Amino acid sequence: MERFWNIVYYCAYKVDYKLHMAFRKIEPVSLTIRLLYKIPKFRNFQEKRGRSLLNMDKDVQDAFKRPDHGISVIFAGGLMGLLIMILFFGLQLLYIAFIEKPKSFEQFAIIFIIYTIISVLISYIFLFRKDKYLKYFKEFDKEPRKWKIKWAWISLGVILFPFVVMVLGFAALTP
After folding, report:
1. Rounded to whole angstroms, how far apart are CA atoms 26 and 84?
2. What's the pTM value of the predicted model, to 2 decimals?
């Protein structure tokens, strides 16, 4: 289970980084740096410090790529926690639709808080405790392309499944 969860996390990280690379010309951070670099005073100040637009663009790419605490890893970690919450929320909606209505909003809110705690604990145990994911990232980087493509498709299914459950839950609630 731990390995599977880390594979999905790795795929989410890679997708986020590749999307950043594909859209880096219009991505907000890179775009802001490019626009600021057109201002002569900013450009002169950066050039006096030995910084060029290419250096700053590389720094932004590194900020996204770093597997230890980069932006793509943070996004992927948030997604992993969110997936569990969405799955539980969708299952709760199905429970409400078919079995029993909640007695009050407070009861529903408490259940949602419990789901959040469970989601954080699962992510921590399988991914973040003792930085397990870094060990798996190194291992997965060595895998062949065919293996990565297979697991990218499996990860896409794992990521979409909670959303499908949630949509079904909302659909079951509608009269």
Report:
1. 31
2. 0.72
